[in-house]
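User: Can you fold this complex?
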Amino acid sequence: MSAKTLYDKIWDAHVVSTEPDGTCLIYIDRHLVHEVTSAQAFEGLRLNNRPVRRPELTLAVVDHNIPTTDRSQGIDDPESKLQMDTLAKNTSEFGVEYYNELDERQGIVHIIGPEQGFTLPGTTVVCGDSHTATHGAFGALAHGIGTSEVEHVLASQTLLQNKSKNMLVKVNGKLAPGVTAKDLTLAIIAHTGTAGGTGHVIEYAGEAIRNLTMEGRMTLCNMAIEGGARAGLVAPDETTFAYLKGRPKSPKGEDWERAVEYWKTLKTDDDANFDKVVEIDATAIAPIVTWGTSPEDAIAITDSVPAPKDFNDEHKQASAQRSLDYMGLTAGTPMTDIPVDKVFIGSCTNGRIEDLREVAKVVEGRQVATHVDAMVVPGSGLVKAQAEKEGIAAILKDAGFDWREPGCSMCLGMNPDKLSPGERCASTSNRNFEGRQGHGGRTHLMSPAMAAAAAVTGRLTDVRALLNEGASA
Amino acid sequence: MKALKELSGVAAPLPMINVDTDMIIPKQYLKTIERTGLGKGLFHSMRYNDDGSDNPDFVLNKEAYRDSKILIAGDNFGCGSSREHAAWAIDDFGIRCVIAPSFSDIFYNNAFKNGMLLIRLPQEQIDELTKQAEFGSNAVFNIDLENQLVIAPDGSEHQFEIDEFRKHCLLHGLDEIALTLEKETAISSYESDASSSRSWLTPAAG
Ligand code: SF4
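Assistant: Here's the predicted assembly.
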């Protein structure tokens, strides 16, 4: 038998049938559903009189457009309310488990899947949201799908797919202190470009990846999609098993033993072939921030805003000029001279407990700058409760952060949390597209620790300076 | 799904790279529970001024391109969010075909599910087609899916690649879900194999 990559192995274990041209029908083990991309899919089922094939493999939650203020008295926005009510009605009609806005388990769809042990190694995971790549951290083949495909999965528990190519991103060495998985994932995208992974499934490997926690691996894989990849994967190991053990939906008893035995086989064979290989030196990575309106516009915090002429390609030059105009930046300005108006900590990239711990470490004993409006939106109700238990919430509130209810919030600004035109935000989310966080809003992507540093100094800041200060004080 | 065999019409040039789905259809249009009516929101922030009036400089607002059936765009078109609303908006506007050097994977799939044709061509050919598209309403492009050809206004033919199965579904307007459900035996037998060899696959009732 020829040598296989991790992706090949998961793929092969899920092929139901193959068309003559190689298009495959792939079995889907786990389906996550939220309010924004599912209504039309359930409606399609209803119109065609089709049931959900295996409702127990689907888990639904409200996250995208829900307000992050107190929800116990109901939701004001009639359109958001309609979408939420539609999801509640659809899930009950079709027998799908649903975490509503008052359930403590409610949260961002990509946070709750792992948290509940719903996401498992070696499974196929889909969701009508591009950041489904997050679940690849567990060695699950996970990718975003559109609403027509959501309907296809609900009806048949399968998806028509063409196999992607294999890409290896090998990260050698160790990340320096103050440098996190977010910096790593941004550095990789800066290196490969936003289309660098198109048509590929990326496997992340190497010493720096092995050393990441599950939270870090999720942050890393979350942004595989920003690098254009269909999915990102990290081979499961003891870190993965320890995270999953005892979660509500994880296998139990003998099933657990058998599962772990199988999961241990989920790694790329030594002589397997990759279509594309990129090697990155982890030791050379500094904390990263974005300057433009594409995640590939990422540079070290120690750098300055680039000029369009710094790029070779004429299309990239035009796009850089457009980005500078939109972002209101002048080429040559040191990144650390850029003031911010808002700070957003949250999203499926960085809304987990570990992220909030990082923020607390930086802001403890400090205050949010007077001109800055800083907001923390925990990724789930359970993350929120944990942070409150650990005293993190108190530290953040004392420092002047606004402590909110879980949801996607200002990651996409579908709810009332958004930037006003011209406002500049240090954000731990994943997209700095024009208008992403609000019409005319300017987003700089960075790690939670870096966003915390920006909150206390009021401008983009190298967090390492604050950490050293803290250490010597 | 709608069938598409041939298409003839004006092509709007939009030579920008990394046009993301937030740009194609912004969030305020995502609160709908319908698939239709999104054409008015297509390219919202480029197409309209802050006061809601048309931005006369945007290509789709120019007289020649108001009825475009084809869009010629830059590299990595449709990147970002998985929102199928992006495909619905383009389709609802009346554009049935987008030609670009590359597309994001998810957008590519979404468009085909809605009976749209996405064509990948090398950058040099895109540059050439863009130039011709700039001639406006007299520059009619013809697309022939059967023969996998884009015929430019100057008569030049540009061959493109497409998966056989996708082409077949699009030519005949097939309902993919119905096709898949015909494979019931294969799906059931996969399920029984998987549940005996990997018993943990059914989630614990947590
Ligand atoms: S937090 Fe942002 S990226 Fe993540 S699922 Fe929500 S909207 Fe999508």
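The CA atoms of residues 35 and 62 of chain A lie 6 Å apart. The two ends of chain A are 60 Å apart (CA to CA).
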